[in-house]
Every structure is written in C-alpha cells, then in structure tokens.
Amino acid sequence: MELLPKSSAREFSRGSVIYPPHRPQANLYLVMAGRVKVSTTPSEGETVCRLVFKGGLFGEPALIRAPNRSDTAVALEAVRLMSWTASEIDEQVDLNPRLGLVLCQYLVKQCLDLMDRMQSLVRYDTPKRLMLVLIEIARSAGVEMPDGATRVEPLTHQILSECVGTSREVVTFQLNRLRSLGFIRYSRQYMDVSVPQLEAGLRAGK
Questions:
Q1: Is residue 102 within 8 Å of 3, Cβ to Cβ?
Q2: Going from the N-terminus, what domains does the chain have, and what CATH number goes with each?
Q3: E-assigned strands of 69-195?
Q4: pLDDT digits 0-9 by tens, 137-163
Q5: Contact 107/63 with Cβ under 8 angstroms?
Q6: Is the overall model pTM greater than 0.90, yes or no?
Q7: Exposure pattern of 45-76 as b/e (b: 16+ CB <10 Å)?
Q8: DSSP letter assigned to residue 6
Q9: Computed over its alpha carbons, how large is the radius of gyration of the chain?
C-alpha cells in the first residue's frame, strides 16, 4: 500500500460483480474497505474460492496479460477499491523497482496459496478443510481478543461452503461441531476463532 500510487476509489455494492470470467481484465485492485470473493476455475474444473480483505490485492492476472482468465470477483458487502491498469503498474515499477520486487513476492505467495487450496480439496476431508479455512481467515483479517481468541466478521455458511468445496448444510453441521468442541463461537455480529485449538485439533485428527 505504501509503494502503490494513489488512485481514485470506486465503490461497489454488496453482490456486485467487479469483473466476470472470460473477459479481458486489465486492472489490479486494492481493497480499501469491505471484502471480496474471488473464484478461480482451473482447467480440471474444480472451483477454488479465496477471500480478499482490507489491504489485499486481486486481479493479478492483469499484470501478466493472461489471455485465458477464468476468475471472477464479487463484492461480499459494500466495498471500496483502488485500481491500476497493467501499464500504470509498469510505469510505477520503472520509477520504483522495489515495487516490482514486492509485487513478484506477492504473486509467488498467491500462487503457493492457490496450490495449497487446490491440494487441500484432494488431500483433506471436509472437516479439516473447514478448519484450515477458518485458520486462514483468522490470520488474514482477525483481531486478537483478550481471551486469546481471534475475532473475525461473520461470513455466511454459503460463502464458507464455497471456500471449502462442499454444501451449506455440511458447513452448518461442521460449524456446530466445532462450536461444541469449544474451537469457535459465533453470532450474527462476529465469529471468535481459537487458532491454537483448531491447529491442535488438526494434529489430533478431530
């Protein structure tokens, strides 16, 4: 955020499609407020979902002029975004090579994260995938509470099911199970996630 130049912000209402799949997309986006869901459909056909929170980037395929994009971005709530075209980013990298290095590091991390998500769909069962998603969300956008839990803004069971790759009913059942174990607690206003307990549960096979 410190290296990118200021640009005029655009606002999108909840449920708005920021960009659809299979359409040329030339912008890199920075989330200033709100949350965005990015869904990617690899060649195998399995949809992989990631959530982008305040301070996160998406639209990375624009930087490499990817000709065959399959991702789509949707606002989960009212969001405010800054964006830059690939040409604008190129100009800024020429002026400040450090920006290019940071973006390369960011892109590598996103590629590794996407690989992990795809592998988790194959390697882990649904309970473990949900636990991994909750840990990722807590680390990405959570606020530490006095009791050691990490508080995150609530997400619908439908959104979580898309991230995990299962049905909403299954996610509801698994969330109730995790709540009964004391790993999470939630209401309509928030979800408190105990990352240490979830990690211990994963190791113990719970």
A1: yes
A2: 10-122 (2.60.120.10), 124-204 (1.10.10.10)
A3: 71-75, 79-85, 143-144, 150-152, 184-186, 191-193
A4: 999 889 999 999 999 998 999 999 988
A5: yes
A6: no
A7: eeebbbbbbbebbbbbbbbeeeeebebbbbbb
A8: P
A9: 18
